[in-house]
Structure formats: C-alpha cells, structure tokens
Design brief:
The protein is an alpha+beta fold. It has 4 helices and 5 strands, in the order βαβββαβαα. The longest helix is centred in the first third of the chain and has 18 residues.
Length: 140
C-alpha cells in the first residue's frame, strides 16, 4: 500500500487489519483525553462505513505512529474528528508532513470540538487560512 505524504488511507475498501489499527489509535485517543466513545466504526471483523475515513501515520522507521479519523455528514463536507500520535512520535513533524495531502483530499475541512491545546497551536502554525480563522483558541 502506498504511503501518501506520510499516511495510509483507510476507507471502506481497505483491508480489515488497517481498520483494526485505526481502531487501536481511536481507543488510545479516547482513553488519553477522557472521551465517552470511540470515533471509529471499523475493526478486525468489519470495515468502517464510507462516511468514515482514517489515516495511519507512518514513522521514518516504518512503524504505525498514530492515526486520525475523518467523518462526512455528506460527501463533500469532511470534518477531522480526532488525531492521535503515540507519545514517542509526537513533535517529529509527522502531522505537518501529512497536512497538505489531507487538505488536498478533504478540502478545507473543519475540526470537531473540543480541540486540545496542542491542536490549536498546530493549526495556528500550519492550518489553512480558513482553518486558522475558524479554529482560534478561545480566550479564557
């Protein structure tokens, strides 16, 4: 499977092992940030539905460093619902490298809230102008 700008696309046609790998990272995201549900419907026994797309982030050493999940209410409006990297792979430029390809694939997508501080900082530096405008960290 070709790695496209640092990530592997996982869609409803992808092998089940890929859905399981995205699910593992979606569970880690849920656990780390204390959310009440896992935002990925694929697994080792069933593919996720077409309205969900995942990406597996691949490190320089070939390891699966993390994943993200996109959801579409319709076929043109995609939203990034979550993104998670294992701690040893954070701040190594993996998401930065993949971001232009994600924008190319999903358009000027929005991010589901709540947004973590690290993601606000990332968007401020690397987001599209629309993303920067729409996803500024609220003043507290």
């Amino acid at each position: 499977m070709p790695v496209e700008e640092g990530s592997l696309l996982v869609d409803s046609d992808s092998p089940l092992w890929m859905h399981e790998e995205v699910l593992k990272r979606a569970r880690a995201f849920r656990f780390e940030f204390g959310y009440d549900r896992v935002q990925w419907e694929g697994s080792a026994s069933k593919a996720g539905p077409p309205e969900w797309r995942g990406h597996l982030f691949i490190s320089d050493d070939g390891a699966i460093a993390g994943a993200c999940g996109f959801y579409a209410e319709d076929e043109v409006s995609w939203e990034l619902h979550w993104i998670w990297l294992a701690p040893p792979y954070r701040r190594h430029g993996l998401v930065k490298a993949a971001w232009p390809a994600l924008i190319s694939r999903y358009g000027d997508f929005d991010l589901e809230r709540p947004i973590q501080d690290a993601m606000y900082a990332f968007i401020a530096k690397h987001g599209s102008p629309r993303q920067v405008e729409r996803h500024r960290k609220p003043i507290q």
